[in-house]
Amino acid sequence: MNKLKLVFATNNQNKLKEVQAMLTNFEIVSLAEINCFDDIPEIAKTLEGNAILKANFITNKYDLNCFADDTGLEVEALNNEPGVYSARYAGKENNAEENLKKLLIELGDNSNRKAQFRTAITLNINKKQYTFEGICKGTILKEKQGEKGFGYDPIFMPDGFNKSFAEMNVNEKSSISHRGKAIEKLVTFLNNYT
Ligand code: IMP
User: Fold this and answer.
1) Which residues contact 6 (CB under 8 A, 6 or more apart)?
2) What's the distance, CA 41 to chain centroid?
3) Is 49 a residue whose pLDDT tops 80?
4) I need a surface site. Which of 36, 53, 75, 171 has the fewest CB within 10 A?
5) Given this model, what pLDDT does residue 19 score?
6) Substitution candidate for ligand 1 out of 75, 119, 152 with most atoms within 8 A of CB
7) Is 152 in the pocket of ligand 1 (CB under 6 A)?
8) In this structure, what DSSP letter does residue 73 have?
């Protein structure tokens, strides 16, 4: 039986592999595999908005079913910043070290260190649109801990753990992470999709 083809609007091989392993009933392809090398605009003011922009760009241009994700770190004492601007908090480039440093400076010794990672996924399938959300709550550490992961991982400690995301291996992180939870919802939906 032919598998339903779904574009995952990413070129991040780690994300792609993670999702392919969970969705074996579908043919999940990356942007490169459909020869899409466009710089897809991410100019919305919300995570959901950017996920919709990316998914719609692909569906409109290639007439393909597609899903896209966008993630941000929302820090309570900073009015939920950096949020949708997480990748470029300290400037245009996606410079994790500078972003993380800026966050620690902005937060200073504020005693409210509550934060959450939030992922929005938008799915366009057979002319309908669905959105899924995953949240991981935690606290911002005063200094970096751990070497693994990426982005803000060394300063984020998920609730219920006494180590940062950067001290967890990939499987442990995925089982509790924002992205893991959002993907799980997408997978449940797709595996029941007829
Ligand atoms: P993206 O939407 O997955 O590209 O994420 C946007 C930005 O959020 C990244 O450039 C990182 O700075 C940050 N980010 C997303 N997910 C994570 C995570 O799991 N750990 C740490 N930082 C993350």
Assistant:
1) 23, 26, 27, 28, 29, 64, 65, 66, 67, 125, 190
2) 16
3) yes
4) 171
5) 87
6) 152
7) yes
8) E
Collect contacts of 10-19 with beta carbons under 8 A, ≥24 apart. Answer: 10/68, 10/69, 15/69, 15/179, 18/174, 18/183, 19/183, 19/187
Q: Is 93 helix (H, G, I), strand (E, B) or coil?
A: coil
Cα 2 to averaged position of ligand 1 atoms, centre (Å): 34
Nearest CA to ligand 1 atom 11: 151
- Are 86 and 72 in contact, with CB atoms under 8 Å apart? yes
Secondary structure (3-state) at 130: strand
Q: What is the pLDDT of residues 105-138, one digit of tens each?
A: 999 999 999 999 999 999 999 999 999 999 999 9
**Integer Cα distance of 23 and 140 in angstroms:** 33
pTM above 0.85, yes or no: yes
